[in-house]
Protein backbone atom coordinates (compact mmCIF):
# COMPACT_ATOMS: atom_id res chain seq x y z
CA UNK A 1 0.00 0.00 0.00
CA UNK A 2 1.26 3.51 -0.71
CA UNK A 3 2.26 5.63 2.27
CA UNK A 4 -0.17 8.23 3.58
CA UNK A 5 0.08 11.53 1.67
CA UNK A 6 -1.11 14.97 2.67
CA UNK A 7 -4.14 14.41 0.45
CA UNK A 8 -5.24 11.14 1.98
CA UNK A 9 -7.87 12.72 4.12
CA UNK A 10 -9.80 10.13 6.10
CA UNK A 11 -6.96 7.58 6.00
CA UNK A 12 -4.31 6.86 8.60
CA UNK A 13 -1.24 4.66 8.78
CA UNK A 14 -1.99 1.09 9.73
CA UNK A 15 0.14 -1.36 11.65
CA UNK A 16 1.58 -4.28 9.66
CA UNK A 17 -0.90 -7.17 9.41
CA UNK A 18 -3.80 -5.01 10.57
CA UNK A 19 -6.56 -5.19 7.92
CA UNK A 20 -6.60 -2.27 5.50
CA UNK A 21 -9.70 -0.18 6.14
CA UNK A 22 -11.11 1.09 2.87
CA UNK A 23 -13.07 4.30 2.43
CA UNK A 24 -15.42 5.41 -0.27
CA UNK A 25 -14.11 8.04 -2.68
CA UNK A 26 -16.73 10.73 -3.17
CA UNK A 27 -16.24 14.23 -4.53
CA UNK A 28 -12.45 13.82 -4.50
CA UNK A 29 -12.14 12.88 -0.83
CA UNK A 30 -11.96 9.62 1.09
CA UNK A 31 -15.21 9.22 3.00
CA UNK A 32 -15.27 6.64 5.81
CA UNK A 33 -18.24 4.26 5.94
CA UNK A 34 -19.85 3.12 9.19
CA UNK A 35 -20.23 -0.54 8.28
CA UNK A 36 -17.67 -2.86 6.76
CA UNK A 37 -17.42 -6.25 5.07
CA UNK A 38 -14.43 -8.54 5.74
CA UNK A 39 -12.30 -9.26 2.71
CA UNK A 40 -10.09 -12.36 2.88
CA UNK A 41 -6.62 -13.00 1.52
CA UNK A 42 -7.43 -16.07 -0.60
CA UNK A 43 -3.98 -17.58 -0.10
CA UNK A 44 -4.34 -17.77 3.72
CA UNK A 45 -8.06 -17.30 4.41
CA UNK A 46 -7.22 -14.43 6.81
CA UNK A 47 -9.07 -11.11 6.78
CA UNK A 48 -6.81 -8.53 5.18
CA UNK A 49 -9.17 -5.67 4.27
CA UNK A 50 -12.37 -4.12 5.54
CA UNK A 51 -14.59 -2.92 2.72
CA UNK A 52 -17.31 -0.27 3.14
CA UNK A 53 -20.74 -1.85 3.23
CA UNK A 54 -22.27 1.05 1.33
CA UNK A 55 -25.94 1.49 0.54
CA UNK A 56 -28.35 3.98 -0.95
CA UNK A 57 -27.05 6.98 1.06
CA UNK A 58 -23.44 6.52 -0.10
CA UNK A 59 -24.52 5.94 -3.69
CA UNK A 60 -26.75 9.05 -3.60
CA UNK A 61 -23.82 11.13 -2.33
CA UNK A 62 -21.54 9.77 -5.06
CA UNK A 63 -24.10 10.37 -7.83
CA UNK A 64 -24.67 13.92 -6.54
CA UNK A 65 -20.91 14.58 -6.62
CA UNK A 66 -20.66 13.13 -10.14
CA UNK A 67 -23.58 15.23 -11.32
CA UNK A 68 -22.08 18.38 -9.85
CA UNK A 69 -18.80 17.70 -11.67
CA UNK A 70 -20.43 16.86 -15.01
CA UNK A 71 -20.78 20.38 -16.40
CA UNK A 72 -17.12 21.25 -15.84
CA UNK A 73 -15.76 17.93 -17.11
CA UNK A 74 -17.98 17.55 -20.17
CA UNK A 75 -17.12 21.09 -21.34
CA UNK A 76 -13.39 20.36 -21.44
CA UNK A 77 -11.78 19.48 -24.75
CA UNK A 78 -11.01 15.84 -25.37
CA UNK A 79 -7.33 16.77 -25.30
CA UNK A 80 -7.61 18.27 -21.81
CA UNK A 81 -9.41 15.18 -20.60
CA UNK A 82 -6.71 13.04 -22.22
CA UNK A 83 -3.99 14.98 -20.40
CA UNK A 84 -5.67 14.20 -17.07
CA UNK A 85 -5.88 10.50 -17.91
CA UNK A 86 -2.29 10.37 -19.10
CA UNK A 87 -1.09 11.86 -15.81
CA UNK A 88 -3.01 9.18 -13.91
CA UNK A 89 -1.48 6.51 -16.17
CA UNK A 90 2.05 7.78 -15.46
CA UNK A 91 1.54 7.72 -11.68
CA UNK A 92 -0.07 4.30 -11.80
CA UNK A 93 2.84 2.98 -13.86
CA UNK A 94 5.34 4.40 -11.37
CA UNK A 95 3.55 2.36 -8.63
CA UNK A 96 3.22 -0.80 -10.73
CA UNK A 97 4.94 -3.07 -8.23
CA UNK A 98 2.84 -2.06 -5.22
CA UNK A 99 -0.34 -2.40 -7.28
CA UNK A 100 0.77 -5.84 -8.56
CA UNK A 101 1.46 -7.05 -5.02
CA UNK A 102 -1.89 -5.74 -3.74
CA UNK A 103 -3.85 -7.19 -6.70
CA UNK A 104 -2.22 -10.55 -6.07
CA UNK A 105 -2.96 -10.48 -2.34
CA UNK A 106 -6.58 -9.44 -2.91
CA UNK A 107 -7.44 -11.67 -5.83
CA UNK A 108 -5.09 -14.64 -5.41
CA UNK A 109 -3.30 -14.43 -8.77
CA UNK A 110 0.51 -14.79 -8.81
CA UNK A 111 2.32 -11.48 -8.38
CA UNK A 112 4.19 -12.06 -11.68
CA UNK A 113 0.85 -12.30 -13.50
CA UNK A 114 -0.44 -9.03 -12.03
CA UNK A 115 2.96 -7.49 -12.83
CA UNK A 116 2.99 -8.45 -16.49
CA UNK A 117 -0.74 -8.52 -17.33
CA UNK A 118 -3.13 -6.79 -14.94
CA UNK A 119 -1.45 -3.56 -13.98
CA UNK A 120 0.26 -2.86 -17.34
CA UNK A 121 -3.15 -3.37 -18.95
CA UNK A 122 -4.69 -0.78 -16.57
CA UNK A 123 -2.02 1.70 -17.69
CA UNK A 124 -2.70 0.77 -21.32
CA UNK A 125 -6.47 1.20 -20.87
CA UNK A 126 -5.93 4.78 -19.69
CA UNK A 127 -3.37 5.62 -22.38
CA UNK A 128 -5.20 3.88 -25.21
CA UNK A 129 -8.51 5.67 -24.73
CA UNK A 130 -6.77 8.98 -23.95
CA UNK A 131 -5.01 8.79 -27.32
CA UNK A 132 -7.74 7.13 -29.40
CA UNK A 133 -10.98 8.87 -28.46
CA UNK A 134 -10.01 12.48 -29.41
CA UNK A 135 -9.62 11.34 -33.03
CA UNK A 136 -13.02 9.69 -33.22
CA UNK A 137 -15.44 12.19 -31.76
CA UNK A 138 -17.39 13.83 -34.57
CA UNK A 139 -18.16 13.36 -38.26
CA UNK A 140 -19.57 15.75 -40.85
CA UNK A 141 -21.11 15.56 -44.30
CA UNK A 142 -21.81 18.26 -46.88
CA UNK A 143 -24.83 17.59 -49.11
CA UNK A 144 -24.80 20.04 -52.08
CA UNK A 145 -28.15 18.85 -53.47
CA UNK A 146 -29.94 19.66 -50.24
CA UNK A 147 -27.76 22.69 -49.64
CA UNK A 148 -26.85 21.67 -46.12
CA UNK A 149 -23.95 20.66 -43.98
CA UNK A 150 -24.63 17.98 -41.37
CA UNK A 151 -22.40 17.22 -38.49
CA UNK A 152 -22.71 15.00 -35.47
CA UNK A 153 -21.99 15.74 -31.88
CA UNK A 154 -21.10 12.69 -29.79
CA UNK A 155 -22.45 13.92 -26.50
CA UNK A 156 -21.69 12.48 -23.07
CA UNK A 157 -24.73 11.23 -21.16
CA UNK A 158 -24.04 12.34 -17.60
CA UNK A 159 -23.17 9.95 -14.78
CA UNK A 160 -22.03 6.51 -15.94
CA UNK A 161 -22.54 3.62 -13.50
CA UNK A 162 -19.72 1.08 -13.73
CA UNK A 163 -19.95 -2.34 -12.09
CA UNK A 164 -16.96 -4.70 -12.23
CA UNK A 165 -16.14 -8.26 -11.07
CA UNK A 166 -13.36 -9.79 -8.97
CA UNK A 167 -11.34 -11.78 -11.47
CA UNK A 168 -9.48 -8.89 -13.15
CA UNK A 169 -10.28 -6.16 -10.66
CA UNK A 170 -8.51 -2.96 -11.72
CA UNK A 171 -7.97 -4.17 -15.31
CA UNK A 172 -11.72 -4.33 -16.01
CA UNK A 173 -12.58 -1.25 -13.98
CA UNK A 174 -10.14 0.92 -15.96
CA UNK A 175 -11.38 -0.63 -19.24
CA UNK A 176 -14.73 1.03 -18.48
CA UNK A 177 -13.49 4.10 -16.67
CA UNK A 178 -11.11 5.37 -19.37
CA UNK A 179 -13.59 5.54 -22.30
CA UNK A 180 -16.43 6.76 -20.05
CA UNK A 181 -14.28 9.69 -18.92
CA UNK A 182 -12.74 10.41 -22.31
CA UNK A 183 -16.24 10.75 -23.75
CA UNK A 184 -16.98 13.44 -21.17
CA UNK A 185 -19.10 11.51 -18.67
CA UNK A 186 -18.50 11.53 -14.97
CA UNK A 187 -18.50 8.23 -13.16
CA UNK A 188 -19.68 6.30 -10.13
CA UNK A 189 -17.97 2.92 -10.02
CA UNK A 190 -18.64 -0.04 -7.76
CA UNK A 191 -15.87 -2.64 -7.79
CA UNK A 192 -16.49 -6.17 -6.55
CA UNK A 193 -16.74 -6.46 -2.78
CA UNK A 194 -14.34 -9.43 -3.09
CA UNK A 195 -11.50 -7.33 -4.55
CA UNK A 196 -11.68 -3.64 -3.72
CA UNK A 197 -8.15 -2.81 -2.60
CA UNK A 198 -6.52 -1.73 -5.86
CA UNK A 199 -9.54 0.41 -6.75
CA UNK A 200 -9.04 2.15 -3.39
CA UNK A 201 -5.33 2.62 -4.11
CA UNK A 202 -6.36 4.01 -7.50
CA UNK A 203 -8.41 6.72 -5.72
CA UNK A 204 -5.16 7.88 -4.14
CA UNK A 205 -3.54 7.99 -7.57
CA UNK A 206 -6.41 10.21 -8.75
CA UNK A 207 -5.81 12.54 -5.83
CA UNK A 208 -2.08 12.65 -6.49
CA UNK A 209 -2.77 13.41 -10.16
CA UNK A 210 -4.99 16.36 -9.12
CA UNK A 211 -7.84 14.75 -11.03
CA UNK A 212 -10.86 17.10 -10.90
CA UNK A 213 -12.94 16.32 -7.81
CA UNK A 214 -16.21 14.47 -8.36
CA UNK A 215 -15.41 13.29 -11.89
CA UNK A 216 -14.60 9.80 -10.58
CA UNK A 217 -16.39 8.47 -7.51
CA UNK A 218 -15.92 4.97 -6.19
CA UNK A 219 -18.43 3.40 -3.83
CA UNK A 220 -17.49 0.05 -2.33
CA UNK A 221 -19.95 -2.57 -1.19
CA UNK A 222 -22.13 -5.53 -2.03
CA UNK A 223 -24.03 -6.07 -5.26
CA UNK A 224 -27.58 -6.24 -3.92
CA UNK A 225 -27.12 -3.05 -1.84
CA UNK A 226 -24.53 -0.63 -3.30
CA UNK A 227 -24.65 -2.16 -6.80
CA UNK A 228 -28.41 -2.18 -7.00
CA UNK A 229 -28.69 1.39 -5.69
CA UNK A 230 -26.32 2.47 -8.45
CA UNK A 231 -27.89 0.66 -11.39
CA UNK A 232 -31.42 1.79 -10.48
CA UNK A 233 -30.46 5.38 -9.64
CA UNK A 234 -32.65 7.74 -11.69
CA UNK A 235 -29.70 10.07 -12.35
CA UNK A 236 -27.54 7.30 -13.87
CA UNK A 237 -28.57 6.96 -17.53
CA UNK A 238 -26.05 4.31 -18.55
CA UNK A 239 -24.69 1.21 -16.85
CA UNK A 240 -21.68 -0.78 -17.95
CA UNK A 241 -21.54 -4.14 -16.20
CA UNK A 242 -19.08 -7.02 -16.25
CA UNK A 243 -19.92 -10.09 -14.19
CA UNK A 244 -22.04 -13.21 -14.16
CA UNK A 245 -24.95 -13.85 -16.50
CA UNK A 246 -27.28 -14.16 -13.51
CA UNK A 247 -26.46 -10.65 -12.28
CA UNK A 248 -26.53 -9.31 -15.85
CA UNK A 249 -30.04 -10.68 -16.27
CA UNK A 250 -31.11 -9.04 -13.04
CA UNK A 251 -29.64 -5.70 -14.13
CA UNK A 252 -31.37 -5.93 -17.52
CA UNK A 253 -34.72 -6.60 -15.81
CA UNK A 254 -34.30 -3.93 -13.13
CA UNK A 255 -33.26 -1.18 -15.54
CA UNK A 256 -35.55 -1.98 -18.50
CA UNK A 257 -38.47 0.18 -17.29
CA UNK A 258 -36.03 3.08 -16.88
CA UNK A 259 -34.74 2.76 -20.50
CA UNK A 260 -31.11 2.89 -19.42
CA UNK A 261 -28.36 2.27 -21.88
CA UNK A 262 -26.73 -1.05 -20.96
CA UNK A 263 -23.52 -2.83 -21.76
CA UNK A 264 -23.38 -6.35 -20.34
CA UNK A 265 -20.20 -8.46 -20.43
CA UNK A 266 -21.12 -11.81 -18.87
CA UNK A 267 -20.16 -15.45 -18.49
CA UNK A 268 -18.74 -17.93 -20.97
CA UNK A 269 -18.36 -21.62 -21.71
CA UNK A 270 -15.50 -21.26 -24.12
CA UNK A 271 -14.35 -24.06 -26.40
CA UNK A 272 -11.07 -24.91 -28.08
CA UNK A 273 -11.13 -26.98 -31.25
CA UNK A 274 -7.96 -29.00 -31.88
CA UNK A 275 -7.61 -30.36 -35.43
CA UNK A 276 -5.16 -33.17 -36.14
CA UNK A 277 -3.01 -30.94 -38.36
CA UNK A 278 -2.21 -28.48 -35.57
CA UNK A 279 1.18 -27.73 -34.07
CA UNK A 280 0.57 -29.88 -31.02
CA UNK A 281 3.35 -28.50 -28.82
CA UNK A 282 2.28 -24.90 -29.30
CA UNK A 283 -1.40 -25.86 -28.96
CA UNK A 284 -0.83 -27.60 -25.61
CA UNK A 285 1.22 -24.69 -24.28
CA UNK A 286 -1.60 -22.31 -25.26
CA UNK A 287 -4.28 -24.55 -23.76
CA UNK A 288 -2.39 -24.83 -20.48
CA UNK A 289 -2.58 -21.02 -20.25
CA UNK A 290 -6.13 -20.74 -21.54
CA UNK A 291 -7.45 -23.39 -19.14
CA UNK A 292 -5.53 -22.63 -15.97
CA UNK A 293 -4.19 -19.06 -15.94
CA UNK A 294 -5.55 -17.03 -13.02
CA UNK A 295 -6.81 -20.42 -11.74
CA UNK A 296 -9.24 -20.60 -14.65
CA UNK A 297 -10.93 -17.40 -13.50
CA UNK A 298 -10.79 -15.38 -16.71
CA UNK A 299 -14.09 -15.05 -18.55
CA UNK A 300 -12.22 -16.12 -21.70
CA UNK A 301 -10.71 -19.28 -20.20
CA UNK A 302 -11.18 -22.52 -22.10
CA UNK A 303 -13.40 -25.05 -20.36
CA UNK A 304 -14.28 -27.43 -23.23
CA UNK A 305 -11.61 -28.89 -25.50
CA UNK A 306 -12.73 -30.74 -28.64
CA UNK A 307 -9.90 -32.86 -30.07
CA UNK A 308 -10.00 -34.64 -33.44
CA UNK A 309 -10.18 -38.40 -32.86
CA UNK A 310 -6.87 -39.39 -34.48
CA UNK A 311 -5.06 -37.09 -32.05
CA UNK A 312 -7.22 -37.64 -29.00
CA UNK A 313 -5.18 -40.23 -27.06
CA UNK A 314 -1.84 -38.55 -27.71
CA UNK A 315 -3.28 -35.14 -26.85
CA UNK A 316 -4.78 -36.35 -23.57
CA UNK A 317 -1.51 -37.94 -22.45
CA UNK A 318 0.54 -34.85 -23.22
CA UNK A 319 -1.97 -32.33 -21.88
CA UNK A 320 -2.47 -34.29 -18.66
CA UNK A 321 1.29 -34.49 -18.16
CA UNK A 322 1.57 -30.72 -18.57
CA UNK A 323 -1.30 -30.09 -16.11
CA UNK A 324 0.29 -32.40 -13.52
CA UNK A 325 3.42 -30.28 -13.60
CA UNK A 326 1.64 -27.00 -12.91
CA UNK A 327 3.08 -25.50 -9.75
CA UNK A 328 0.48 -24.33 -7.23
CA UNK A 329 1.28 -22.31 -4.14
CA UNK A 330 1.65 -18.87 -2.55
CA UNK A 331 1.03 -16.19 -5.18
CA UNK A 332 4.20 -14.36 -4.12
CA UNK A 333 6.41 -17.31 -5.26
CA UNK A 334 7.91 -16.44 -8.61
CA UNK A 335 7.68 -19.95 -10.08
CA UNK A 336 4.07 -20.59 -9.01
CA UNK A 337 1.75 -20.83 -12.03
CA UNK A 338 -1.54 -21.03 -10.11
CA UNK A 339 -2.48 -19.32 -6.87
CA UNK A 340 -5.70 -19.92 -4.95
CA UNK A 341 -9.24 -19.35 -6.18
CA UNK A 342 -10.73 -16.08 -5.08
CA UNK A 343 -13.00 -17.12 -2.24
CA UNK A 344 -14.09 -20.10 -0.18
CA UNK A 345 -17.66 -20.19 -1.54
CA UNK A 346 -16.27 -19.98 -5.06
CA UNK A 347 -13.82 -22.86 -4.42
CA UNK A 348 -16.70 -24.92 -3.01
CA UNK A 349 -18.79 -24.18 -6.09
CA UNK A 350 -15.98 -25.17 -8.45
CA UNK A 351 -15.30 -28.40 -6.53
CA UNK A 352 -19.01 -29.28 -6.71
CA UNK A 353 -18.62 -29.47 -10.48
CA UNK A 354 -16.07 -32.27 -10.06
CA UNK A 355 -18.72 -34.25 -8.14
CA UNK A 356 -21.25 -33.45 -10.88
CA UNK A 357 -18.78 -34.71 -13.48
CA UNK A 358 -18.37 -38.01 -11.65
CA UNK A 359 -22.17 -38.33 -11.21
CA UNK A 360 -22.56 -37.65 -14.95
CA UNK A 361 -20.14 -40.46 -15.88
CA UNK A 362 -16.94 -38.45 -16.39
CA UNK A 363 -13.40 -39.53 -15.50
CA UNK A 364 -11.14 -37.13 -13.63
CA UNK A 365 -7.74 -37.68 -15.27
CA UNK A 366 -5.70 -35.37 -13.10
CA UNK A 367 -6.14 -32.64 -10.53
CA UNK A 368 -8.44 -32.38 -7.55
CA UNK A 369 -8.87 -35.73 -5.80
CA UNK A 370 -6.24 -37.39 -8.00
CA UNK A 371 -2.96 -35.75 -6.98
CA UNK A 372 -2.00 -34.42 -3.58
CA UNK A 373 -1.95 -30.68 -3.07
CA UNK A 374 1.18 -29.86 -1.13
CA UNK A 375 1.03 -26.40 0.46
CA UNK A 376 3.17 -24.54 2.99
CA UNK A 377 1.63 -24.45 6.52
CA UNK A 378 0.59 -20.78 6.24
CA UNK A 379 -1.45 -21.59 3.11
CA UNK A 380 -3.34 -24.60 4.42
CA UNK A 381 -6.52 -22.52 4.92
CA UNK A 382 -6.18 -20.89 1.49
CA UNK A 383 -8.59 -21.64 -1.35
CA UNK A 384 -6.33 -23.80 -3.53
CA UNK A 385 -7.06 -26.67 -5.90
CA UNK A 386 -5.11 -28.48 -8.59
CA UNK A 387 -5.76 -27.99 -12.33
CA UNK A 388 -8.26 -30.65 -13.23
CA UNK A 389 -8.91 -32.39 -16.56
CA UNK A 390 -12.09 -34.39 -17.08
CA UNK A 391 -13.09 -36.60 -19.99
CA UNK A 392 -15.91 -38.97 -20.88
CA UNK A 393 -18.74 -36.45 -20.45
CA UNK A 394 -21.71 -35.99 -22.76
CA UNK A 395 -22.15 -32.57 -24.36
CA UNK A 396 -25.32 -32.07 -22.31
CA UNK A 397 -23.66 -32.74 -18.94
CA UNK A 398 -23.44 -29.91 -16.41
CA UNK A 399 -19.67 -29.50 -16.76
CA UNK A 400 -20.01 -29.13 -20.55
CA UNK A 401 -22.92 -26.68 -20.41
CA UNK A 402 -22.52 -24.46 -17.33
CA UNK A 403 -19.86 -21.88 -16.52
CA UNK A 404 -17.56 -23.27 -13.80
CA UNK A 405 -15.05 -20.40 -13.73
CA UNK A 406 -12.22 -22.41 -12.23
CA UNK A 407 -9.25 -24.58 -13.26
CA UNK A 408 -11.37 -27.40 -14.69
CA UNK A 409 -11.38 -28.24 -18.36
CA UNK A 410 -13.27 -31.04 -20.13
CA UNK A 411 -11.77 -32.85 -23.11
CA UNK A 412 -13.87 -34.70 -25.69
CA UNK A 413 -13.18 -36.28 -29.12
CA UNK A 414 -14.76 -35.33 -32.47
CA UNK A 415 -14.65 -36.63 -36.05
CA UNK A 416 -15.51 -33.91 -38.56
CA UNK A 417 -15.43 -30.14 -38.97
CA UNK A 418 -19.22 -29.92 -39.42
CA UNK A 419 -19.83 -32.03 -36.32
CA UNK A 420 -17.54 -30.00 -34.09
CA UNK A 421 -19.04 -26.68 -35.17
CA UNK A 422 -22.52 -27.89 -34.16
CA UNK A 423 -21.27 -29.25 -30.84
CA UNK A 424 -19.26 -26.15 -29.91
CA UNK A 425 -22.26 -23.95 -30.62
CA UNK A 426 -24.50 -26.11 -28.45
CA UNK A 427 -24.33 -24.05 -25.23
CA UNK A 428 -26.25 -21.00 -24.01
CA UNK A 429 -23.00 -18.98 -24.04
CA UNK A 430 -20.95 -17.38 -26.80
CA UNK A 431 -18.05 -15.35 -25.49
CA UNK A 432 -15.00 -16.73 -27.32
CA UNK A 433 -13.48 -19.83 -28.88
CA UNK A 434 -10.10 -20.91 -30.19
CA UNK A 435 -9.20 -23.11 -33.13
CA UNK A 436 -5.91 -24.95 -33.62
CA UNK A 437 -5.06 -25.97 -37.18
CA UNK A 438 -2.33 -25.45 -39.77
CA UNK A 439 -4.98 -25.17 -42.50
CA UNK A 440 -5.59 -21.44 -42.87
CA UNK A 441 -8.75 -21.86 -44.95
CA UNK A 442 -10.22 -24.14 -42.29
CA UNK A 443 -9.25 -21.63 -39.58
CA UNK A 444 -11.30 -18.94 -41.34
CA UNK A 445 -14.17 -21.30 -42.20
CA UNK A 446 -14.61 -22.54 -38.65
CA UNK A 447 -14.20 -19.05 -37.16
CA UNK A 448 -17.02 -17.79 -39.37
CA UNK A 449 -19.39 -20.51 -38.16
CA UNK A 450 -18.71 -20.44 -34.43
CA UNK A 451 -21.25 -18.40 -32.46
CA UNK A 452 -18.91 -16.32 -30.31
CA UNK A 453 -17.80 -12.72 -29.94
CA UNK A 454 -14.12 -13.55 -30.55
CA UNK A 455 -12.50 -16.53 -32.26
CA UNK A 456 -8.74 -16.98 -32.00
CA UNK A 457 -6.83 -19.27 -34.34
CA UNK A 458 -3.58 -20.79 -33.05
CA UNK A 459 -3.51 -18.30 -30.20
CA UNK A 460 -5.56 -17.12 -27.22
CA UNK A 461 -6.14 -13.87 -25.32
CA UNK A 462 -4.41 -11.68 -27.86
CA UNK A 463 -6.27 -8.40 -27.40
CA UNK A 464 -6.21 -5.27 -29.52
CA UNK A 465 -8.29 -2.57 -27.85
CA UNK A 466 -9.39 -1.28 -31.26
CA UNK A 467 -11.16 -4.60 -31.91
CA UNK A 468 -14.71 -5.19 -30.60
CA UNK A 469 -14.90 -7.26 -27.43
CA UNK A 470 -18.06 -8.91 -26.11
CA UNK A 471 -20.25 -11.97 -26.28
CA UNK A 472 -23.35 -13.35 -27.98
CA UNK A 473 -26.25 -15.30 -26.48
CA UNK A 474 -26.01 -15.34 -22.65
CA UNK A 475 -22.44 -14.01 -22.75
CA UNK A 476 -23.21 -10.42 -23.48
CA UNK A 477 -25.00 -7.48 -24.91
CA UNK A 478 -22.95 -4.81 -26.66
CA UNK A 479 -19.26 -4.49 -27.40
CA UNK A 480 -16.29 -2.66 -25.90
CA UNK A 481 -13.48 -1.21 -28.06
CA UNK A 482 -12.35 2.23 -29.20
CA UNK A 483 -15.33 2.67 -31.53
CA UNK A 484 -17.87 0.60 -29.58
CA UNK A 485 -17.07 2.26 -26.27
CA UNK A 486 -17.26 5.68 -27.89
CA UNK A 487 -20.73 4.81 -29.17
CA UNK A 488 -21.82 3.39 -25.84
CA UNK A 489 -20.61 6.25 -23.66
CA UNK A 490 -22.07 8.98 -25.92
CA UNK A 491 -25.25 9.65 -27.84
CA UNK A 492 -24.97 11.04 -31.37
CA UNK A 493 -26.78 14.23 -32.18
CA UNK A 494 -27.08 15.39 -35.80
CA UNK A 495 -26.89 19.14 -36.41
CA UNK A 496 -28.08 20.26 -39.85
CA UNK A 497 -27.24 23.76 -41.18
CA UNK A 498 -28.53 25.27 -44.43
CA UNK A 499 -25.69 26.80 -46.40
P1 LIG B 1 -21.11 -11.15 -10.14
O1 LIG B 1 -22.16 -11.02 -11.16
O2 LIG B 1 -21.41 -11.91 -8.92
O3 LIG B 1 -20.63 -9.72 -9.64
C1 LIG B 1 -20.15 -8.75 -10.56
C2 LIG B 1 -20.40 -7.38 -9.99
O4 LIG B 1 -21.81 -7.16 -9.92
C3 LIG B 1 -19.87 -7.20 -8.56
O5 LIG B 1 -19.36 -5.90 -8.42
C4 LIG B 1 -21.12 -7.37 -7.73
O6 LIG B 1 -21.07 -6.74 -6.48
C5 LIG B 1 -22.16 -6.72 -8.64
N1 LIG B 1 -23.54 -7.12 -8.36
C6 LIG B 1 -23.99 -8.30 -7.87
N2 LIG B 1 -25.34 -8.25 -7.71
C7 LIG B 1 -25.74 -7.03 -8.13
C8 LIG B 1 -26.99 -6.38 -8.21
N3 LIG B 1 -28.12 -6.98 -7.81
N4 LIG B 1 -27.04 -5.13 -8.71
C9 LIG B 1 -25.92 -4.51 -9.12
N5 LIG B 1 -24.69 -5.06 -9.03
C10 LIG B 1 -24.59 -6.31 -8.56
O7 LIG B 1 -19.84 -11.74 -10.90
P2 LIG B 1 -18.44 -12.12 -10.25
O8 LIG B 1 -18.61 -13.40 -9.51
O9 LIG B 1 -17.87 -10.94 -9.55
O10 LIG B 1 -17.54 -12.35 -11.54
C11 LIG B 1 -17.43 -13.57 -12.21
C12 LIG B 1 -18.30 -13.55 -13.45
O11 LIG B 1 -17.93 -12.45 -14.28
C13 LIG B 1 -18.13 -14.78 -14.32
O12 LIG B 1 -19.39 -15.19 -14.74
C14 LIG B 1 -17.32 -14.28 -15.49
O13 LIG B 1 -17.48 -15.01 -16.68
C15 LIG B 1 -17.81 -12.89 -15.62
N6 LIG B 1 -16.88 -12.05 -16.34
C16 LIG B 1 -17.19 -11.70 -17.63
C17 LIG B 1 -16.29 -10.94 -18.37
C18 LIG B 1 -16.60 -10.53 -19.77
O14 LIG B 1 -15.91 -9.64 -20.28
N7 LIG B 1 -17.57 -11.12 -20.42
C19 LIG B 1 -15.09 -10.53 -17.78
C20 LIG B 1 -14.81 -10.92 -16.47
C21 LIG B 1 -15.72 -11.67 -15.76
UniProtKB/TrEMBL annotation:
Name of one Pfam family that matches: Aldedh
SUPFAM superfamilies associated with the record: ALDH-like
Any one GO molecular function term: oxidoreductase activity, acting on the aldehyde or oxo group of donors, NAD or NADP as acceptor
InterPro entries the UniProt entry points to: Ald_DH/histidinol_DH, Ald_DH_C, Ald_DH_CS_CYS, Ald_DH_CS_GLU, Ald_DH_N, Aldehyde_DH_dom
Keywords tagged on the record: NAD, Oxidoreductase
Catalytic-site annotation from UniProt: 265
This protein's record includes keyword NAD: yes
Ranges where the Aldehyde dehydrogenase domain occurs: 35-495
PANTHER family assigned: 2-AMINOMUCONIC SEMIALDEHYDE DEHYDROGENASE
Membership in a protein family: Belongs to the aldehyde dehydrogenase family.
Name this polypeptide is given: Aldehyde dehydrogenase domain-containing protein
Native source species: Scylla paramamosain
Upper taxonomic lineage: Eukaryota, Metazoa, Ecdysozoa, Arthropoda, Crustacea
